[in-house]
């Protein structure tokens, strides 16, 4: 298995192909707006905030790779990457759909780009291959948090295939 195939497998595991942890698309499938904004204690992040955080970094890497740095999301610090848009059910759905779209766009680039493009440095970052490896690990970490938050609310149905 080459590096690209390995990374594509990791990337898919984070979104829509079950592996050692459930993919985010399945985890978020039945999460309501109320569950998405719920926090177990003051200072903790909600499911929606975690999805915003994941989206921030994936969108930033996508736009940097495409050379669209003027459109990339900005944050004054890491805490700001969890910031929510106006809290409405419609915006919750939009956030999920944007995350799924950005994740799939990065997957398409990974699957179709020439290897030398995947290894060129992205402005202010490492090559895309390295960034996607790190983002997949980052996603897996936060997917675990999202599953735990959904379990705390009784929202996690045992939909696992094993």
TrEMBL record:
<protein>
    <recommendedName>
        <fullName>DinB-like domain-containing protein</fullName>
    </recommendedName>
</protein>
<dbReference type="InterPro" id="IPR024775">
    <property type="entry name" value="DinB-like"/>
</dbReference>
<dbReference type="Pfam" id="PF12867">
    <property type="entry name" value="DinB_2"/>
</dbReference>
<feature type="domain" description="DinB-like">
    <location>
        <begin position="24"/>
        <end position="146"/>
    </location>
</feature>
<dbReference type="InterPro" id="IPR034660">
    <property type="entry name" value="DinB/YfiT-like"/>
</dbReference>
């Amino acid at each position: 298995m080459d590096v690209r195939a390995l990374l594509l497998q990791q990337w898919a595991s984070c979104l829509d192909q079950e592996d050692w942890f459930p993919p985010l698309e399945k985890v978020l499938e039945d999460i309501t707006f109320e569950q998405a904004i719920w926090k177990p204690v003051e200072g903790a992040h909600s499911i929606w905030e975690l999805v915003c955080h994941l989206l921030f970094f994936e969108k930033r890497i996508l736009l940097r790779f495409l050379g669209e740095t003027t459109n990339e999301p900005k944050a004054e610090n890491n805490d700001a990457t969890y910031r929510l848009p106006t809290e409405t059910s419609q915006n919750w759905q939009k956030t999920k759909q944007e995350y799924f779209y950005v994740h799939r766009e990065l997957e398409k680039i990974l699957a179709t780009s020439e290897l030398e493009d995947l290894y060129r440095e992205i402005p202010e970052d490492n090559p895309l291959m390295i960034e996607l490896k790190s983002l997949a690990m980052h996603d897996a970490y936060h997917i675990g948090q999202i599953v735990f938050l959904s379990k705390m609310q009784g929202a996690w149905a045992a939909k696992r295939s094993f």
